[in-house]
Amino acid sequence: MKKTIWGQTRGGEDVSVYTLENENGMEVSFMDFGANVRTIVVPNAKGEKADVTLGFDKLEDYFENPAFYGCCVTPCGNRIGGASFTLNGTTYQLDKNDGENNLHSGFDPLARRMWQVKEADDHHIVFTYEKKDMDMGLPGNMTITVTYTLTEDNALRIEYRGLSDQDTLFNPTNHCYFNLAGQGKGDVLDHMVWIDATEITAVNSHMIPEGTVLNIVGTPMDFTKETALGKGIGADFEQLVIGNGYDHNYILTIPKGEIPLVASAYDPKSGRKLEVYTDRPGVQLYTGNYIDTADEGKDGAKYAPRHGVCFETQFPPNAINVPTFPHPVAKAGEEVVTTTIYKFVNA
Hints:
single chain, 347 residues, mainly beta, Beta-galactosidase, Chain A, domain 5, 5-stranded antiparallel beta sheet, 2 helices, 3% helix, 41% strand
């Protein structure tokens, strides 16, 4: 494990980058700012290496980072409708940072704060944050830990843990934008995607699921067979029109206690393939529809919409406000543990 100081926060704290490398030449680096992913460098079958996740060269760009490049999103990823929820008879108001909704925990999420490194070695690193009661509008003092492990079979294993002294919400996710050809190599519309799901949680005009479950087999949103992202992304299909592309939660069926393969993406040009494993009940497929063309990425790359694809493992967006959805509630004194794995193979 290599550690280097990258710069300082606006408050003068040193920001360090931690890099792990395995025997196959895969390298992954992380920041203690946000516990975020900085780079994921993966070789293809020919040994050609590329950084396959979007991001910035300048630390200062991560202080805002509205696209959430590489972010560890905690305590709550995705949207909560009306920026409020009721738990145990008490209604809690959250930041309205996405129109009338709360997105990725509000204006001051943990992805834009300094975390502590609890432990680190050549194979893994553990970040921790002590969230105070009512921080970001959420009840409970909560210890949150995120463990990144790089394995010898080119898998990045992410384990999230949350332990609160009050009932609260906990729906962490990862927001890496993947481009398997390499960041800065253009759009991902030729990426072949498979998702083990026949239904999505349909959204309203404000991108909020309200309880409707939509069977998408045979529609432009169907990825039960490996399909190019660009094939149906521009279709005149209501959910795609609302989202300006794919930005939807696919409903997964996860056997209890298992972390199965739930999705994959394959780039035919580089030969790299990403496999996604999770124990969560959903995965948000997001095709970077609102990437700002003013963003200057790593190595001076000019980003644009659909230059990356996210697989955000999660509970459904707005789940706490929909009785029929599984609820991302962490009970007082009961630690929540969840795991997602991004594994890279050469197809």
